[in-house]
Amino acid sequence: MLYETMNEFETAISLLKRALALLEKLPQEQHSEGSVSARIGWLLLLTGKVKQAIPYLESAAERLKDSFGPKHFGVGYIYNNLGAAYLELDRPQSAAQMFAVAKDIMEVSLGPHHADTIEACQNLSKAYGEMGRYVLFYWFHIIP
C-alpha cells in the first residue's frame, strides 16, 4: 500500500503478486488470497491493463464468496470492478450482468441509499445505455 500512495503501481502490483503466490499455498488464507487478488485486479484496472485485471477479479470474487458469503459487500465491489472492466472492453451486456449482481449485493449489505449502491445503479444504467436499452437506462439512472 505504501507503493500505491507513492503512485508506484507497477511495484505495488509486483509485490502483491509475490504475496499472492505465497497465499495460494495456504488454504486457510483463502480470504487473504481473495483480498490480494482483488487489489491486484483493481490496480491493473487503474493502470489500464483491463484484460489482465479480469482473471484476478474473477478469482477474488470466488474466494471471497467462499470465505464471507455471496452477499458480502466486498464481493459487491469486485463485481462492480468487473462490470467496469467489461464496459471498458466494449462488452456492455457482460458489464450489465456484473453491475446488476453488484447492485443486488450492495442493496442487501449496504442498503439501497448507500453511495456505493447508488453508484452501482448508475453503472448499470450506463451499461444499459451502451446496449441501447434506454427504458432500463432511464429507470436505473433516475430511480437509484
Automatic annotation (TrEMBL):
SUPFAM superfamilies: TPR-like. InterPro entries: TPR-like_helical_dom_sf, TPR_rpt. Pfam families: TPR_12, TPR_7. It comes from the Eukaryota. This is Nephrocystin-3-like. It comes from Trifolium medium.
